[in-house]
Amino acid sequence: MKNERFEIIAKTMQGLEDVLAEEIALLGGENIEPGRRMVSFTGDKELLYKANLQLRTALRILKPIYRFSASNTDEVYDQIKSFNWDKFLSPDKTFAIDSVVYSDEFKHSKFVTYRTKDAIADYFAEKYGKRPSVRINNADILLNLHISQHNCTLSLDSSGESLHKRGYRVDQTEAPINEVLAAGLILKTGWRGDKNFIDPMCGSGTFLIEAALIATRTAPGIYRKDFAFERWPDYDEELFDRLYNDDSMETPFEYKIYGSDISPKAVSIAERNIKSAGMSKYIELNVQPFQQCTEAPENGVLVTNPPYGERITSEDLLGLYSMIGERLKHVFKGYDCWIISYRDDCFDRIGLKPALKLEMMNGALECQYRKYEIFDGKYRDFKQKTGGFREKKRETAQFPAATKKYGRIPEKRGQKEERRFPGEDEKWQKPKMLHGEEAIEKFVTFKLPSIQDPDVDNRPGWKRLRDRYQEQQKALKEKSRKKSNDKEVDSSPYKKRGSRDEKPLKKASRSPKPSFKEKPANPKTTRRTTGKNTNPKTRKQ
């Protein structure tokens, strides 16, 4: 059925779940539930097509078709084989499987993929005498198997290649930023094309192009050659053509997007990518080191991705970040400047107080995305005049009770995700009061009493340090006392052997040390002081 509604899952990058949920809501999705690196919602076939075309922060769009539980690969085989595959596959079609496993029972995702492939092949072989072929690239049907502990979800992949591969990139510099991440970082700033946009370290121009697509509301999927759902048995070509050619959402952009880079090669690559995307009239490019930037257009936002020192290195990485802080402070007054980076010591060299810190993932790197509200003068004077950062005032205005009690917005322990705030049209609502079992279930945690090991010192650290210091001082005193006693014994004229009348011992006379010019005498030929020959071979009988 054309208007049949079903569950849809949009995969994304960690830290972009809230932005993706807002995008899905604008498209008309229902029952939206953000999760870890994914957002689930319900919709129809039209919404599935629109999600692939228009979502900027989605990596792929999945349609779940079968859920089951399994504790080993044999059970996965049995469950997959029992499914009715005639709805989606036929012996003359090709298929591919992508398995994602988070489980203690399933150690190897590739083996899970092999068993799933065997189950599908055996289903058709037993029923029709022939089986569909496996094809890694450009398969007719792409399957996604997600296993979380014992819960298994089999889905159809409607996207094919990852949606971050927009299709406009013709060339790239070293270590370009992911298009989905770039779009998500821009959307997190709140910028929607209502002011100028600047990237002074543009590289291959990913931020610039994604900003132009956002400002003009151009669908990011229009550059792609195809989607996986176009090879489904129920593909509606007429519906997709209508959505693809619909440009009613596009709007004019009255401001400018400025990009620059120190590398002429990078600027040349960015220029070709921008031309491929058809956004040349909105973007201005020039070759310029950031340290030579002396002026900035009024009313703008800055977003940039400097080198981290991982894949792209700099001769003086910390000096680069010091220069960035100096330029931001002196050139971009009144701007909101957003910087994503990996190292804390690099952020420290910027020398500016961040108004907001967001935890993000850039590939395998745990990065931070920091917002700097640039003002003139010192922060103390700025706070006295204006009341502090706009980000803090926004929190205070929308959470007055919590701000009055705590002086800040309290967070849960260990929570690192971005705080969510009500929209402009929403009002602050008093939290629901919980009583009885509901309150106990939410707020009370029962723990077993801990049994302490008597051999383990569980005292606070300062007490252990104090006792260790006292023991060291006591040992030093004891050592010094023994030394003083030894000195008293050596200085006494009598050796204490139990007799008071014992006479003092005479000190043995020592021969003078030989001079460094004189060689010591040979002990074999040395005579005693008595003058007698001590050598037994020469002694007379």
Low-confidence blocks of residues: 399-419, 494-509, 523-532, 536-541
Order of helices and strands: EHEEHEHEHEEEHEHHEHEEHEHEEHHHHH
Write out the strand line-up for the largest beta sheet, numbering strands in chain order: 2-3-1-4-8-7-5-6
Terminus-to-terminus distance: 134 Å
Helix content: 25-40%
Task: Throw out a few tags for this protein.
15 helices, seven-stranded mixed sheet, 15 strands, 541 residues, disordered C terminus, alpha/beta
Structure in a nutshell:
This protein is of the alpha/beta class. Helix content is 33%, strand content 17%.
Can you tell me about this structure?
The structure is a single chain. By secondary structure, the protein is an alpha/beta fold. 33% of the residues lie in helices and 17% in strands. It has helices spanning 17-27, 45-54, 73-82, 109-128, 179-188, 206-216, 237-244, 264-277, 317-331, 344-350, 379-386, 390-398, 400-406, 436-443, 461-491; strands at residues 6-11, 30-34, 38-43, 60-69, 94-102, 133-134, 141-148, 151-157, 196-199, 257-261, 283-287, 300-304, 336-341, 356-362, 365-373. It has an eight-stranded mixed beta sheet with strand order 2-3-1-4-8-7-5-6. It starts with 5 loop residues before the first strand and ends in a 50-residue tail after the last helix.
List strands and helices in order, with pairings:
Elements: E1 6-11, H1 17-27, E2 30-34, E3 38-43, H2 45-54, E4 60-69, H3 73-82, E5 94-102, H4 109-128, E6 133-134, E7 141-148, E8 151-157, H5 179-188, E9 196-199, H6 206-216, H7 237-244, E10 257-261, H8 264-277, E11 283-287, E12 300-304, H9 317-331, E13 336-341, H10 344-350, E14 356-362, E15 365-373, H11 379-386, H12 390-398, H13 400-406, H14 436-443, H15 461-491
Parallel strand pairs: 5-6, 5-7, 9-10, 9-12, 10-11, 12-13
Antiparallel strand pairs: 1-3, 1-4, 2-3, 4-8, 7-8, 13-15, 14-15
Helix pairs in contact: 2-7, 3-4, 5-6, 9-10, 12-13
